[in-house]
Amino acid sequence: MSIRTGAQFLAGLKDDREVWYDGERVGDVTTFEPFAASVQSLATLYDMQHDPQHRDILSVDCPEFGERIARPFEIPRTPEQLRLKREAYRIWAEATCGMMGRSPDFLNVMLASLAAKRSFFAEFSGERADAVVAYYRHVASSDLFLTHALLDPQLDKGKLRHQQTDPTITLHVKERTKDGLLVHGAKRIATAAPYADELLVWPFPPTFQPGEEPYANVFAVPMNTPGLKTICRPSFAHPGRRKDYPLSAQFDEMDATVVFDNVLVPWERVFLHEDIGLLNRMYRDTRMRELTAHQTNTRLETKLGFVYAVLLRVAQASGIDTRKDVIEMLGEAVMNLEAIRNTTRSAELQATLDPENGVLYPDLAALQCGRALGPVVYPRAVQMIRKVAGGGLVQLPNSMHEFDSPIGADLERALRGAGIGGREKAQLLRLAWDICGSEFGARHELYEMNYAGEYGALLAGIQREYGRKSYYLDHLDRFMSTL
Length: 483
Prior knowledge:
The protein is of the alpha+beta class. 48% of the residues lie in helices and 14% in strands.
């Protein structure tokens, strides 16, 4: 099997995985009401790979595999391959309005980046390096959907992992056996874990200190692994109410805590273990950031573009789209959107070939701008919708069905706008509310604000690693020498 259909994706989820919601075990994640719409949205993405309109963008014949694979799994070696990868990310992002931050393409490209840097894992051992590459080939050939779990439970942030009152809460190696690692403890936030095929585990941020070796592990397991529990947050979905909640009724990604209760991870799925030196270097030295940020910035561009369009339509419906302060705000929204849009294209134009593995990596500095701007410009775009829509967001009907009730005519008259009928304007404002007022919208604002980790640390890292720093300093020094 190579390129899966939506039906094959759904069938693969019926595997007796242990998923918990509101204190009860979920029997079938594909039909469980809080998940069903999002699972179906993901199935639609898999079906798009077979659509003649998108097939040659979303998938590619890969000589290394001897078969067709999904485009995100392709390891780029030419500018055209980079461009086509971006186009594939865009097509899937547009299908979800950019609202599914953990669509399958994200982890697929991450896994490809790890396999491309086999030499990094070989520093630990040849066996671990072989395991990474073999796992990548397995996932790509099976077209699986991965998610990941990076973060530790929020315990006492003033203490290291092994210094906690109960150091066994955080995921750690309990025992090494001839068959693999026995691991125990919890990880969070595993977005889409209830309906992913597999879970890639590695710790973030990479700031391990001596004594924390048992917690420094990278491995992957199927979601139905015995002893693995997935515990879900409350759902923000509104099943069957697409007119009233246009986004959350389709695209609410479930976030979860994953608990490992003495889980055996076979050696062929262990990629690093108990090595704080390598773990602290992995995020940088595998160059995963370049390839994953290429995907995430494309998704963010799509999401911001969608929000900008909603903002403009709301302003037009209110008849204020040419008012000086509003048109300036709209111009700011365009500026922010274009800044994100240009990070991927600039990164492609400035891509460099890594002589060690022949991979063409998009420019990190350009992509890091998107990572740093995203936590600022997305909340700003949401704030703009709140400001332009104003009280119209509050005085909305309980349901769009009310327009077909005895009070429908009253609502039509009361809610009409500038060149727009009451029903159409209400539908637009229901969409705006789902972006800026619903629990779903609040979760997305929080998600984008924290996506790249602690903001100050992100900015400091950009300064430390800025590759063109010496170029500009040399220019300054040459100028100073003439004075």
